[in-house]
Amino acid sequence: MEQGAKIIIIDDNTDYLFTMETFLKRNGFETLTAEDGKKAMELIQKERPDLILMDIMMEGLFSGFQLSKKLQSDPDLKNIPVIGISGIGPELGIQKDKHLLLRKYFDSDNFFEKPVDKNKLLAKMKEILEG
To answer: Which CATH fold would you assign to the domain 6-130?
Structure first.
């Protein structure tokens, strides 16, 4: 795995942020966190992370879908890989491959349902970071 890769974790659940940040730091990553899309966009523009882990169903006005749209439309940021994470499926009874917004903004291979299988997430991160 690319040791020291810079990861931004975006989630409106502070307990989840702490847990994921601790886990990734223990696995050799540099991490930054944001609790909403506005703060996340500022961090992304300033820090240019190697990878973004993003909750797609945040409660604020700037949800993960909106943030994804902004990232994809910005020529300087659109190539930063994003892994979407959410409990949308179990919460709403939606299959990720059939949800139109999910398919538009997230490749099904780069989307994880909560609770996240951390070993599978690490494997996906390694695959993305090592290209």
So the answer is: Rossmann fold (3.40.50)
Q: Could you tell me which of 5, 1, 15, 67 has the C-alpha nearest to residue 36?
A: 67
110: tokens are 């780069």
**Structure token digits, residue 76:** 């300087």
Distance between CA atoms of residues 103 and 106, nearest Å: 5
Encode the chain (131 residues) as per-residue pLDDT tens digits. 566 899 999 999 999 999 999 999 999 999 999 999 999 999 999 999 999 999 987 776 567 888 988 999 999 999 999 998 887 665 555 555 555 566 676 666 788 888 899 999 999 999 999 98
Domain positions in the chain: 6-130
Q: Cα–Cα–Cα angle for 75, 85, 5, nearest 5°?
A: 60
Peptide bond before 115: cis, by omega within 30 degrees of 0?
A: yes
Q: How far apart are CA 31 and CA 4, in angstroms?
A: 9
Chain Cα centroid distance, residue 38: 14
Q: What are phi and psi of 100, to 5 degrees?
A: -60, -45
Q: Distance (Å, rounded) from C-alpha 116 to C-alpha 77? A: 25
